[in-house]
Amino acid sequence: MRIVIAGGGIGGLSAALSLHAAGFEDVTVHEAAQELRPLGVGINLLPHAVRELTELGLADRLAEIGVATAELAYFNRYGTAIWSEPRGLDAGYAWPQYSVHRGRLQMLLLEAVVERLGPRAVRTGSRITGPGDEDLLIGADGINSAVRAHLFPGEGPPPWNGLVLWRGMTYGEPFLTGRSMIMAGDGTQKFVAYPIETGGRTLINWIAERPLDGEAPGRGDWNRPADLKEILRHFADWRFDWLDVPGIIAGADAAYEYPMVDREPLPYWTSGNVTLLGDAAHAMYPIGSNGASQAIIDARVLAHSLAHGDPAAYEAARRPATTALQLSNRRMGPEVVMKLAHERAPDGFDDIEEVVPHAERAAIAASYKRTAGFDPASLNGRPSWSVTR
């Protein structure tokens, strides 16, 4: 079976590794860029994705480049705690959660593909726009996928919700546990921070989010430069006892602007010898740390389905699940606790229990884990998608 993968990002490279592990030898990744370079800023890999990379034999390499997340914590815009929960091994998962530089993860996957499938398995400067004579074309070419456009011509640019994300990285002091991921905001304006490198110095990945005046340029382009002074203007008074937000923003060498866009859920992903994967299939708002993780899971389920002679099982398993997640992220997913706290106590609060009771907060967190497929008990007990040969 000859398989062509369009796109050499995290999803496409994970698909190549998964297919090879499942016994498929004739697999080629085609990347439109002339060179694969470690671009981007930080992302998170949730335990369900780390499980899949572990079962692909990459656990040690991943541990070398990632920071194992200890907790996720939400605060209002004044830095007062709303909700916190342990993450990864500290939450009872059999696998950690990692914060990692996206480019370093991509290079890790690329290195593994070249080692296992050979140096000709990845071909740069090669843009795939539609099917050819391969047995299967996998469109893993991102939110502006040419393969998706072949299946759904005339779809147009991804819809924008009016918010902009500014992203950057700054060396700074550790905060909270030293391995905490924090989100502070009011449901409209938000600041996120987490370490992606620790040791001698802590490299903090940060995201600042708010409504953008005017039309959004560069939809789907993660690498559009942003003006640090413009970002600081909106977060100048966000100084907490435990985190200096304007200090972190000002300390970055550069920042990047990304309009918050996603894609509409599709009625199908597969037509003839073409199927979609990752953002090409289900681009979603970057809420809940799920984009890269879901692409990795797609790759594993697709390889498992093909190896068992049931290609339809891939879409049957993944499309309803990711559609539910896309829609949940449009409703703010677990981050809705910040919106609720602001609506009920816009000037702040002394006791969160009087504003958003613990049972309500816990239910929101648990519901999202079920929707996204990383409920601890279900994940730990689920059969492996590895293929025994």
Automatic annotation (TrEMBL):
SUPFAM superfamilies: FAD-linked reductases, C-terminal domain, FAD/NAD(P)-binding domain
Domain FAD-binding per the UniProt entry, residue ranges: 269-308
Domain of life: Bacteria
Coiled-coil regions, chain positions: none
An annotated Gene Ontology molecular function: monooxygenase activity
Entry keywords, A to Z: Monooxygenase, Oxidoreductase
InterPro entries attached to this UniProt entry: FAD-bd, FAD-dep_Monooxygenase_BioMet, FAD/NAD-bd_sf
Name recorded for this polypeptide: Flavin-dependent oxidoreductase
Organism: Planobispora takensis
Source species taxonomy: Bacteria, Bacillati, Actinomycetota, Actinomycetes, Streptosporangiales
